[in-house]
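Quick one before lunch.
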Amino acid sequence: MKIGIVGAGQVGATAAYSMMMRRVGSEIMLVDRNADLAVAQARDILDATPFADPVRVRAGEFADLDGARVVVLAAGSNQRPGESRLDLLSRNAEIFAEIVPAVLAAAPDPIFLVATNPVDVMTQIVTAIAGRSGIVSERVIGSGTILDSARFRTLLAAHLGISPTYIDARVLGEHGDSEVLHWSGAAAGNLSVGEVARQMGRQLTDADRSRIETAVRRAAYAIIKGKGATWFGVGAGLARMAQAIEEDERALLTCSMLTPECQGVRDVALSLPRVLGAGGVVKTFMPDLDAGERAALKRSAEILKEAAKGVRF
Ligand code: NAD
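Model of the nicotinamide-adenine-dinucleotide complex:
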């Protein structure tokens, strides 16, 4: 499978590197406004291929995206310290008005994987622009809370003393401040995380839950404070999504897509558990939520709906 990546900065290059290490794709084409950067990233990643997968990693122009089945969009500005993801919106919306038609001119029917922040509204923008060329919304997928869910699983795993691989825990709604940690559905095996804690001889108190919740919600701010930006988690998440598409895996991943209705809010892009296969999103699940989670998800959907109103696309 040929994969295009537009934006060869930290996120785009890390996605390419993760794909190569996971043996996803046979050819990866990096495109960036800064052509020298794209060439340098491609050469650097190519040097690692003898240790993993002999994928062809190259840099090129938009025209070189022809034949790409998956195109990652990671171009755009990054959050500055103290800035929320929604603050980035107008800067990145302008960039997408330029790059989405340029991708479609070369690759008329790709599956878009959107990483650029604010990722939910950017996903909605791509859905609108690509929709004019006949691309259905199931083929425009935002990384959304695949990253936040990974953070939730990692912190729960450390607290419970079991591998994150076996923890099924999801963050729903916005990839951002209003995200909803789905505590009532968090499980390992068929046990609730509270019961796992009890059987492991550990506590999972309200204070523990609150500490984990804050760490998940504030993770990006903390990482940005220390190193200026985040890229490894989302790069690995994008590689995982591309793998599910390449292998028609029907993997259940929590990611963003334009959703006809969520908690009474219509036509909003946000994250829910979704089945990913060769054609993109095959199915979306609405999880069982308690009353507090339902209200929080509605609020998150309303915030995203409001944010998208300010953009012309
Ligand atoms: P970066 O600045 O390192 O890279 C962005 C790249 O986009 C630059 O190389 C730039 O030249 C390129 N670019 C800008 N305009 C372009 C255009 N018109 N055509 C082609 N290329 C263009 O930034 P980064 O750290 O890689 O972050 C990229 C985006 O990903 C940001 O919006 C960031 O907030 C977002 N991000 C998302 C997540 C997530 O979970 N979804 C996590 C981290 C970062």
